UniProtKB/TrEMBL annotation:
Keywords of this entry: Signal
Native organism: Shewanella insulae
Signal peptide segment: 1-21
Protein name in UniProt: Putative selenate ABC transporter substrate-binding protein
One GO cellular component, as annotated: ATP-binding cassette (ABC) transporter complex
Alphabetical GO biological process terms: transmembrane transport
Family annotation (SUPFAM superfamilies): Periplasmic binding protein-like II
Family listed: Belongs to the phosphate/phosphite/phosphonate binding protein family.
NCBIfam families in alphabetical order: 3A0109s03R, ABC_peri_selen
Superkingdom of source: Bacteria
Family matches, as Pfam families: Phosphonate-bd
């Protein structure tokens, strides 16, 4: 190839903005098993890449804390957080914004589930949990730990350590269901969406484990983007990203969350979560 033909290519490479060559990376809290997460979020990555016009990569993490750490360390610029992990991340990276949440996340709830061997039955009244073994989900989970612990302590009038004979942290909602179904723990707290999906898919034996109580509604999952996204990916990038998330209409993509749609979110929506976490000692 002649120098005359190569020169325009050299000129283009030298003057293409660095942000155009940068990969946009996101993660998600590991609320289900890893294979399910990869299936869900690799599809989301392809959708975002096509709509945003930049390379998009999904990076799995092993724990809720790891998702927050990746966000703090700028290893990811966007994350699908739960209510508590989102609050933690935004406190660590000031100026970061909650930009979209599932329609259902405005009115989220947790289910308390019990092994069929217990005498506990479904009720609108809070169950007497004294003396049982109990498993939460992840220590950083809103629906699997924060809100369940809040309602347990508020209704029982004492701390969880003084209520249960043994307390566990399963790590994710799928494992919570499996542990309670198997009898490894008598009672547990689970994200209602994961429970409903497991029932619909036939992956839980409802003759062995049942829902006994559900919490009042609270705000939960949301997409949070780092404060410096526009600086790295161009002016207006955050606004465009928000629009793309809100316009996610593909039933297959939505079913993978599962959510019926996405709606706008704001940091102020999660002030109740921050208040509860502070009250029970999960935030400084």
């Amino acid at each position: 190839m002649s120098f005359a033909k190569i020169l325009p290519l050299i000129f283009t490479c030298l003057f293409v903005p660095a942000t155009l060559a940068e990969s946009f990376t996101f993660t998600a809290i590991p609320d289900e098993n890893e294979s399910q997460l990869k299936t869900r979020f690799n599809k989301v990555a392809k959708y975002l890449e096509a709509e945003l016009g930049v390379e998009v990569n999904y990076v799995p993490v092993k724990s809720y804390a790891a998702a927050v750490t990746a966000f703090r360390n700028n290893q990811v610029q966007l994350a699908w957080f739960g209510g508590l992990s989102g609050v933690q991340a935004r406190r660590l990276v000031p100026g970061s914004q909650a930009i979209a949440q599932g329609y259902e996340d405005q009115y989220f709830k947790s289910f308390f589930i019990a092994n069929a061997s217990t005498p506990l039955e479904p009720s609108t009244n809070f169950p007497n949990l004294n003396g049982y073994t109990f498993t939460f989900g992840s220590k950083g989970s809103t629906s699997g730990r924060l809100m369940p612990q809040f309602y347990i302590e508020r209704n029982m009038g004492k701390q969880v350590k003084d209520i249960f004979t043994r307390i566990g942290f399963s790590g994710d909602h799928s494992r919570t269901i499996a542990q309670v179904e198997a009898g490894a723990y008598q009672v547990g707290a689970v994200n209602y969406k994961v429970w409903e999906t497991a029932v619909a898919n036939g992956t839980v034996d409802t003759s062995k484990v049942k829902v006994i109580w559900e919490t009042p509604a609270y705000p939960d999952y949301q997409w949070t983007v780092r404060a410096d996204a526009d600086q790295r990916f161009g002016k207006g990038f955050t606004e465009k990203l928000t629009k793309v998330l809100l316009e996610m209409k593909d039933p297959d993509l939505l079913a993978s969350f599962p959510r019926q749609s996405f709606v706008e979110a704001d940091n102020a929506d999660y002030e109740p979560i921050e208040s509860v976490a502070t009250a029970i000692g999960l935030l400084d």
